[in-house]
Specification:
It contains 13 helices and seven strands. It is an alpha+beta fold.
Length: 387
């Protein structure tokens, strides 16, 4: 297919979406869509969404249109891919099926008002699914962004936040012993949300990823997935194929400093031994480095290297992040600090501008630390106390 025809198809799709904005019925446009565009690929849908955003459509509007998109496009979208069972997409799809089935079972048990033991088991499994979204947000999404697919990941992350809230509500009702119509309604809502979201990922996001991400990158993604972990619905996962020598990267050079020098191996080990999480964001607001502290507070994956820091935060926080970075760059601020309670720990977060010679702004360093034990320190302990 020529580039001209492809552009014509995308122009036609934009016009159809614009008419949906104006209030026309999706069913009325369905046949016109099929007649004008024929078979449209998931990758083209991703490209059109990016163009719509660049033309002023908000991500919130795109998210509200996703259900309409699915209704229009479902007959044209690809079926579940034929991929090996070690593959990251295979694992994500398996978890989708498990989570959908769990929410449906909760809904049915709530309707029948029986099976309390099953409800507790299902709630426990659903409460252990956060890693599913962390793998997508911190590994798969950054790889997609590197290949120019930006809007579907952003929209899916917004939906993840909705799922988190609904999942928490269902689990809370089960744990509090609430049954009957309230639990039935909430469980049905979670099931519907899962069903819609998983359709979008399975029919648009994942096929787009399979189109653009290379075989070597999939092997790296799988290893980064392993580092974050899996849900109870993933089951037994076979190992990924080994990277060839050519696919492996990294060397150990010598790095000179004003006060000495270190090998790359030594420097890496020192930074990874620090009892704090550090992340460096460069002058262009892109993640350049993070250490791998033994007990990280927040999940980090190598996939975020090169990612715009704005894409590492929920949409509602982006304006605040931009404000802090602008004040750092303009020399109006030398620190931003926050603290929060997380899983019984007190977490202290500091953002610090990194400046070079003559105070030139080079980027921002994020330092995160669990200070629970530090807050509890009293009196003193000296080196001699170790004797």
């Amino acid at each position: 297919m020529s580039e001209l025809i492809s552009n014509q198809r995308k122009d036609a799709l934009r016009k159809i979406v614009a008419r949906l904005h104006a209030g026309e019925s999706p069913e009325a446009l369905k046949e016109e869509f099929k007649g004008v565009l024929g078979e449209i690929t998931p990758l083209e849908i991703s490209q059109v969404e990016a163009e719509l955003v660049s033309e002023g459509t908000t991500r919130e509007e795109l998210m509200s249109l996703c259900d309409v998109h699915m209704a229009m496009f479902k007959e044209s979208l690809s079926v579940e891919p034929d991929i090996p069972n070690w593959h990251p997409i295979h694992i994500l799809l398996k978890e989708h099926r498990g989570m959908l089935d769990a929410s449906e079972r909760i809904w049915k048990i709530a309707r029948d008002e029986s099976g309390d033991d099953d409800l507790q088991t299902l709630a426990a499994k659903l409460s252990d699914t956060e890693v599913h979204y962390q793998r997508e947000e911190n590994v798969l999404f950054p790889y997609l962004e590197k290949h120019g697919i930006t809007e579907p990941p952003a929209i899916m992350w917004m939906e993840h936040d909705r799922i988190r809230a609904e999942r928490k509500a269902v689990i809370s009702l089960i744990e509090s012993g609430t049954r009957g119509k309230l639990l039935e309604a909430k469980a049905r809502g979670l099931y519907d949300l899962f069903s819609s979201h998983f359709q979008k990922e399975g029919k648009i996001l994942f096929p787009s990823a399979l189109d653009v991400i290379t075989d070597t990158e999939w092997k790296r993604i799988r290893r980064e997935f392993d580092g974050i972990g899996y849900t109870p619905f993933a089951g037994d996962i076979p190992p990924a194929p080994a990277l060839s020598d050519e696919e492996k990267s990294g060397d150990e050079g010598q790095i000179g400093f004003t006060a000495g020098s270190l090998s790359l191996k030594e420097l890496t080990a020192i930074l990874d031994t620090l009892p704090v999480d550090i992340t460096f964001i460069d002058l262009d607001d892109r993640v350049r480095y993070f250490n791998q502290a033994p007990d990280r507070v927040f999940v980090r994956s190598p996939a975020i290297i090169g990612r715009a820091v704005q894409n590492c935060h929920p949409q509602k926080s982006v304006a605040i992040v931009n404000k802090i970075l602008k004040e750092f760059e303009d020399g109006e601020r030398d620190e931003a600090e926050f603290w929060l309670n997380r899983n019984g720990k007190t977490v202290y977060i500091r953002y610090l501008p990194v400046r070079g010679e003559s105070g030139v702004y080079l980027g921002t360093l994020e330092v995160t630390q669990d200070i629970t034990k530090i807050k509890a320190i009293e009196g003193e302990k000296t080196l001699l106390d170790e004797a």
